[in-house]
Amino acid sequence: MNFQKRLIALPVILTLMLAAKLAAQDRPVISQELEGFMTPTAAIFSPDGRYLFVINHAQGEAGTLRGESFLSKLSVDPQGQVKATNMQFVKSLTAPIDLDFSPVRYGNIPKGAIFLAFGTPLVQDEAGRAMRNLSRVAIGIMVLDPNTGREIERIDLGPNGRVRLEDDLSLLAPSSICFDSSGNLYIGESGVGGHMFDRKQLGRPGIWRLEAEAVEDILGNRSPRKVELIRTTSLPTDMTFREKENKLYFVTNHTQGRPSGSVFRIDAGKYQGISSMQTIVRELSALTGIQVMPKGHVLLAGNSGELMFPKGKRDTRPMRFRPRHDFSSPGKIALQSLKDGSILIAVPEQSSQQGGGKGQRVSIVKLTADG
Q: 294-344: per-residue pLDDT in tens?
């Protein structure tokens, strides 16, 4: 190579080296692997970003264990370092499913209170058998103080409760819960498991949308007035509200035959029927969690162990780790932006290759920026 060609080639080589270095800096990294959890199924950051809450869902062979689940509270410093604050912040829970923080005040319920969805038909009794007595199963919402863990209110919205969401319909198997910025509440309902009871129950999969007035109704143990069921053909699994778009994003899974997952979004305003439901991606492998990145990229957690982004209507691209990293049965993921522009993703891992319940953890992924 002559001198002139070398001069031309040098800037190209330097540019490629710089691009490779920047790309490496932008790669996500597992910054922490936090231990001490028991089947962590869902994670969520507090609105101020100072805390991470993790749901621990105790399971037996025949269903959820009564009174053995708990809610963990961990602190998050400004640099994104997560530390255990109180691993059993709220104890003696049965079938905690998902939680969100109230964006407005409801009567005597302050803004920022925890709304925890709980309950399932699949509960194991003290003898290790599936419970069939409907009167012993509670399904509904628990309101908690985020500072102390004190229970403020508990509302039974299940078949055994006296409050009905609409006509004779009640919650049967809630799968997720989410608020929009106006205080409207969304509750995902999978509708499964009703056949377990001696008095069989018919479930209807969909998303219950309760306007803020309806939330105040149920807090007063009254059947809500402004409520509707957004019907879905598959089982809703997780959802998140994106305030910038005023839209609700949610995941559904089809369980007949080969399990497959799809992602949709709808306007947070009054539901106008299935035609107003926009498909983001469909016919994927089973999905367990969803978040929306600051720049609008949809991030999904798959039961296969990957974090991924939709690519077209029927494909995804994985979040690329070097070396490759797969998560162990990821649950509902949490996302938090830091002041320096970096992003934290909390991934609850419900099982471990170590077996015997060991190694169940929450992995913290850190990204330098939202690409």
A: 999 999 999 889 999 999 888 999 999 988 888 999 999 999 999 999 999
Say if residue 53's pLDDT is above 70.
Answer: yes
Inside any domain, residue 21:
no
CA distance 345 to 367: 8
CB 122, CB 130: distance < 8 Å: yes
Burial class (CB in 10 A: 0-12, 13-18, 19+), 20: exposed
Classify 41 as helix, strand or coil.
strand
Residue 6 lies in a domain: no
Q: How many CA atoms lie within 13 A of 246 on its CB side?
A: 7
Task: State which residues form the domain around 115.
Answer: 30-367
CB-based contact 186:108 (threshold 8 Å): no
Q: Specify whether the backbone of 270 is left (phi greater than 0), alpha (psi in -120 to 50) or beta.
A: beta
Contact call for residues 259 and 274 (beta carbons, < 8 A): no
Indicate if the alpha-carbon torsion angle 205, 209, 215, 221 is positive or negative: negative
Is the residue at 51 inside a domain? yes
Q: Select the more confidently predicted residue: 25 or 39.
A: 39
Using CA atoms, how far apart are residues 139 and 123, in angstroms rounded to an integer? 11
**Tokens 């939680």, residue?**
99
Helix (H) or strand (E) run with residue 140 in it? strand 140-144
| Single pTM value for the model | 0.89
Mean pLDDT of 165-175: 87
Residue, of 189 and 192, whose pLDDT is higher: 189
- Tokens (6 digits) for 271: 């539901």
Paired residues of 254 in beta bridges? 260
Domains in the chain, number = 1
In this structure, the chain runs to a length of: 371
More confident residue, 124 or 334: 334
The answer, yes or no, to whether residue 245 has pLDDT greater than 60, is: yes
Domain assignment present for residue 9? The answer is: no
Omega before residue 323 within 30° of 0, cis: yes
Q: CATH number for the domain including 195?
A: 2.120.10.30
